[in-house]
Amino acid sequence: MTDVTEVELLWLENRIENRIRFGRAVEEKILDPRRRLLSFAPGSIFAFVRWTSSDFGTAISRIDILRAVAPGQRCSTVPYVKPGGEILLRLPGWPKVERVLQLIDAVEALGVDPADAAPDYWHHVHNRLSVNENPRPYTKARHQAWLHRQRIMR
Fold first, then answer.
1. Which InterPro entries does the record associate with it (predicted)?
2. What is the per-residue burial (b if ≥16 Cβ within 10 Å, else e) of 97-118?
């Protein structure tokens, strides 16, 4: 068993698109012109966006923000993710996916890599958007508090 989490990215023009919005892959394998395999180290956080269309338009839109797990650690199964991951956020439907993408852009506008943002922020976004409420924005102060908490926990 390998110690990385593998994500299969698939692109079929106008039909299926699986992509990583953010995250630091430790390895990339090109399987064929339409498929790639990205590997993430245990503990790393990444956003996985899936989109599928039919002859009548978009059929499925979904975003998952996951933390890669270590071997033997509990995880949730997610399509195209092996062995799975710890789900920090999981939302279906284009309006919610679009809102999460906007929030990711806002985190980046602060000069913070979303992969380094506090994991509990993504839980907060998930909980608020699940009940159609607006989540509080990620702030520099919140990020500094997260970094301080990480230093203390070491």
1. DUF2840 (IPR021263)
2. bebbeebbeebeeeebebbebb
What 3-state DSSP class applies to 49?
strand
Averaged pLDDT, 24-36:
96
Domain count, the chain: 1
pLDDT value, residue 54: 75
Closest by CA to 129, choosing from 87, 86, 104, 99, is 99
> Tell me, what's the pLDDT at 57?
67
Residue listed under structure tokens 């199964």: 77
Q: How far apart are CA 91 and CA 79, in angstroms?
A: 14
**Could you tell me which of 6, 25, 23, 3 has the C-alpha nearest to residue 70?**
3
pLDDT exceeds 60 at position 127? yes
Alpha-carbon span 118 to 120, nearest angstrom: 5
Structural element, H or E, at residue 105: helix 94-109
Rg over CA atoms, the chain = 16
Show the domain range for 125.
5-153
Q: Say if residue 1's pLDDT is above 50.
A: no
